[in-house]
Structures are given as structure tokens and as C-alpha cells.
Amino acid sequence: MNFKTIFKSFKNKDMRKRIFAVVGILVVYRFLAHIPVPLGDQTTFKQAIDNFINGTDFGGFINLISGGGLTNFSILLVGLSPYITASIVMQLLTKAIPRMEELNNDGEAGRRKISQWTRMLAVPLAVLQSIAYIYILFQELLAANTGGSVEVSFQSWALAVTSMTAGSIILMWLGELVTEQGIGNGISTIILCSIISSLPKTLTQFGVALFNTSAGTLSLFGWLELPVNPNMFWTILGLGAGLIVVLYILIKINEAQRIITINYAKRVHGNSAYGGIKSIMPIKLIAAGVVPVIFAVAFLSVPAFIGQLVLRADPTSVIAKNIVSWFTAPNANTYDSATGLQAKDFVYPTLYFILVVMFTYFYTSIVFNAQEIAENLQKQGGFIEGVRPGKQTEKYFNKVVNRLNLFGALALGIIAMLPYIVDYIFIATTNAPLGLSISGTGLLIVVTVALENMRQVNSRALMVTYDDYQ
Length: 470
Fold this sequence. Notes:
- The protein is mainly alpha-helical and 470 residues long.
- It has a domain at 9-198: Preprotein translocase SecY subunit (Orthogonal Bundle).
- 67% of the residues lie in helices and 6% in strands.
- The chain contains 19 helices and seven strands.
- It has helices at residues 3-9, 13-32, 42-55, 57-65, 69-72, 81-96, 98-104, 108-144, 154-180, 186-196, 199-210, 230-255, 291-313, 318-326, 347-367, 370-379, 391-416, 418-430, 440-464; strands spanning 218-220, 224-226, 257-264, 267-269, 272-274, 278-284, 382-383.
- The strands form three sheets. Strands 6-3-7 form a three-stranded antiparallel beta sheet. The protein has a two-stranded antiparallel ribbon with strand order 1-2.
- Helix 6 crosses helix 8 and helix 12 packs across helix 19.
């Protein structure tokens, strides 16, 4: 990364215009994230929203992705999840339906058509998710018995669903505007901004706890007295050191790749000879990105959600209570200090880890088509040294990808489980979970998107400063 070139590119008017446009779009996005949904009394929904976020990991994940939209009960509550779901569905259909695969291979026109269908599919998904979220919050209101009025007319329901759907569509449009500026993927950048927006709240909480001297003050070297909580000081210092190590590992894992050398046979066409060159094909260690983690969270949220619905109908159901207990990891609000960690508390993290590994293999098989790559290489006269073109090349690619997936899936699963590992360590030492607001998944998204955006910024900076090197 050439930061000197990037800073030099700021002198270019077009570069400044693009950067200011992206910053302006992100400011508009954060402004929209604080516009409340026009539904009933906002204070009445506060307790229900807090229960939903703290009661399940799915609620916390949705709040993280929506940039606090769930906490604020804003019109961006649904966020980009309908568009992400529609994109995943279209990718699966593209691989499953030959006609759509042909359309995808037709070039830019075909891909634009599929993108248009993705946007159209995102609209009904946004409507369904808006209805589902409002229904869940109403169930939480009834369970919390806050004393506020929960009777809402059909017109208010329709207005709330319409505003939440419109918010999701506007957010999708803002993401595409960011992409058009050519300095990063818009959808990923908005998700990155959403995750980072939770940092000030976390830092404030740590700051309040750090300067709370009710447990005494910190004494260093026997003569230096600092007006800070000594326990919290060493906790923050340890977390900071651990965060640096985790970020370093995340960057290495995200950038890790296997380089395969591709040879091209020399050809003679008339009086011209071409070919006889070498190129490389990089295969990423985690080709699936963070999609397996998103799949795993969504999959594990279903049993807990069903269990909660059953408990609303029959509060005495033992099976429903067990399901909710098994599929909810202990956090600052659900942990019972009297009983400590139980065997059931390890069910959710264990299943989470297994599903992340399984979905990594599944999604990699979708995004990396060994047969198609082997056929394209054979048509272009490319081959791998010591491997015959065609079927043997396909088997070679599958073997390499499976070996990479073994380590990549395990690494991704451990990264996703980082918050639970940290919480269990704190439970064992302090008998209370720490409750991190940014999970291993959030850190992985931050690292992945930040590196990719920096690469695109660096490429555009090289483009606008090209004349300076002539």
C-alpha cells in the first residue's frame, strides 16, 4: 500500500469529489439511522427492543449489522439483510439453473439483468422482514408487560412496514451510489460503517468503568498514583494487547492465499507465434468470506425464535424453555452467577462452530467452480505443470481447495467464537461475562472491507497520479 501516492492523489479534483461524495453518503446514512419508525409510543418499545437484543445472539447481530438501527427503532431497522439474502438466493439460483448461468456468462449485460432481479427480490423480502420484526417486538412488549399501550391500528402497521421497507431500499440505493464512486464496495462499506458506529458507545462504557475509583486507585512503581480503577486498567490493557494480536492474525488469514502457476503452451498461427508464458492463479484461504458466519447465525436463530413463540403461547412448556436455553449463549443479561456455567451453555457455541465449518465448505463449492476453471484453462491452452488438462486439473483444484478449506474453516470458526471464548474466560476468573459489542465476525468484516477499500483507493490513486511518473 503506497500511502504517499494516496495522499498525492488528493490534489486531484476528481479524487476529492469521489471521497467527499462517499463521506456525504455515509453521513446521510447515519442521519437516517436515527429517524424512528412511526409506530406507537417510542418509549414503550424501548424495553421490548432491549429484551430482543440481549435475549438472543440473533438480535445482537441484527443490531450490529443495522448500525444500531434496532436500538434506535429507526426506519433502517431491516438494514441490508433483504438485499444480502436476495444476493445469496440469486447466486444459488445462478448455479442451479442453467439458463441463469448462461445469462451470467453473457457479459456485463447479463450480470446487470441479474442485479436488477436481485433488487426486485429484495423488496418483498424487506416487506416480510419488516412485518416479522414488528411482530417479534410486539411479542416482547406483551411479555415485558411494560404498562404502555400496545394496541396499534392497521394503518399504523402499514405505515411502519412501508417506512421500514423504504428505509431498506434507500439503504440499498446509497450502497450502489458508493460503489459507483469506484473507491470501495458500497454495501460492504455501509456494513463497515454500521459496525464502527458502535465503537463510541463501547469506548464510553470502558471509560466510565476505568475512571470509577470505587475499587481504589492504581499505584505504579510505588510512587505514581493514577486515579483509575486498577482492575479495569489491567483488563483494558490486556484486551488492547489481545485486540492487536487478533487484528494481526485476521489480516494474515484474510490475505493468505495459495499461488498456483499456470503455463500456457506456445502456439504458431501463420507467421506469428504466441503463448509460451506463465501466469499465476491465487486461491484465497477463506474464499467464502464471512458468508458462512452469517448463514450459521441465521440458522441457529430459528430454534430460539420458535421456542420463544411457543413460550408466548404456553409459558409452562418445558421443551420450549430448554430450546431457548440451549440456543442462547450466556451473556451479561442471561448469565446466572449463582449456578455458574452449565453443560447447556456450551451447546450454542459448539453448534455455532460446527455450522461455520460446514457452511464454509458449502459456500466455497458455490463460489469456486473447479470444473468451470479447468475447462476454461483447457480452452485457453493453459495447464499446471505435472497435471494433465481437463479432469485431472479439476481433481487437482478440488484437492487444493479442500486442504485450504480445512484450515480456513477452522480459523473462521475460532474467529466467530472469540466473544464466547473471552466471555467464558471472564466467567471463570470474575464470575461475570464481559459482553463485547463487536464480535469476531464484526472484526473480520472490518478487516476484510477495510483492506479491500484501501486496495481500490490505491488503484484509483495510481490512475490519477499516473502522469506524475512519466
